[in-house]
Amino acid sequence: MPISKSETGVPVWQHRTSKANLILWVGWLALVALFVFCWQVMTQDTIWYFVYDAPRQAADITSRMFPPKWGYISELWWPLWDTLNIATLGTLLAIILSVPVAFLAARNTTPSTRFVRPVALFVIVSSRSINALIWGLLLVAVIGPGVFAGIIAIALRSIGFISKLLYEAIEEIDTTQVEAINATGASGLQTLDYGIVPQILPAFAGITVFRWDINIRESTVLGLVGAGGIGLKLQASINVLAWGQVTTIFLVILGTVLVSEWVSAKVRHSLI
């Protein structure tokens, strides 16, 4: 904190120097200018009549969504089962692929910090950078629509999440345990089995359950791009303006997410 002297020679405490205040104001001015520029870019093609009319349209659609069409719920159980399978099998596939990627990315387990680790980090960043819907679009175009495309999309999206958190857990292990096991003459595999895995196992279990919970939510919308699940029913109902069915689907999705959240919390609490 800078100190200046008044005319009487008594030190006066200041929060910032004049130079720091000037830099701060210039920074705020640049931020406001950037916001104005971005707002103009985002809204240059906006039809403001539609924006002003949006509340009336929203109220009209909401009035058509009630009451829900409860008789339609019988047609949702099988798509919901597909959604759960997409999330679960996609998570399992991601776990199988993520574990080696995480060990290759961690500084204390990778065979090469110069070559292998950057490749593993690139895989992690690539997976986390692309949304599950984008993966679904690409895979539907490559292997066709259906549940299989949804499973692969969820797996590819989950690799980055699981690998990142897992390799960070590997790097934070207690190295004294590893050194003690190495001192006994243990092999590399034995060191991994007895020195590293027991330390990261609770974190790994929590990460995978948490990711499964996230995948339940993401898999519900994959049907919008043809990747199977309850999203197919949602897209079909929206296309024919069957708003009562849409409400029923929303309620089923909400109930599924709440149950998965409860299960995930219970499992993580028992593991960690």
Pick out its properties.
mainly alpha; two-stranded antiparallel sheet; 2 strands; extended
Can you describe what's shown?
- The longest helix has 32 residues, at 188-219.
- With 272 residues, this protein is mainly α.
- α7 (175-183) runs antiparallel to α8 (188-219).
- It folds into two domains: 3-42, no CATH class; 70-271, MetI-like fold.
- Strands 1-2 form a two-stranded antiparallel sheet.
- Helices cover 75% and strands 2% of the residues.
- The protein has helices at 18-43, 48-64, 77-105, 116-129, 132-143, 147-171, 175-183, 188-219, 230-239, 243-271, and strands at residues 3-5, 11-13.
- The chain contains ten helices and two strands.
Offer a concise description of the structure.
75% of the residues lie in helices and 2% in strands. It is mainly alpha-helical and 272 residues long. Strands 1-2 form a two-stranded antiparallel sheet.
Q: End-to-end span in angstroms?
A: 43 Å
Give the rounded overall mean pLDDT: 85
Shape: extended
Uncertain runs: none
Order of SSEs: EEHHHHHHHHHH
The percent range for helix content is: over 70%
Kindly estimate the percentage of residues that lie in beta strands according to DSSP. Answer: under 5%
Query: In order across it, which strands form the biggest sheet?
Result: 1-2
The number of distinct helices, counting runs of at least 4 residues, comes to 10
* CATH fourth-tier homologous superfamily of the largest domain: MetI-like
CATH fold-level topology of the largest domain: MetI-like fold
CATH-scheme architecture of the largest domain: Orthogonal Bundle
Compute the number of structural domains.
2
Question: Roughly how many Å is the radius of gyration?
Answer: 27 Å
Instruction: Return the structural class.
Output: mainly alpha
E-strand count: 2
CATH class of the largest domain reads Mainly Alpha
Q: How would a crystallographer describe the biggest sheet? A: 2 strands, antiparallel
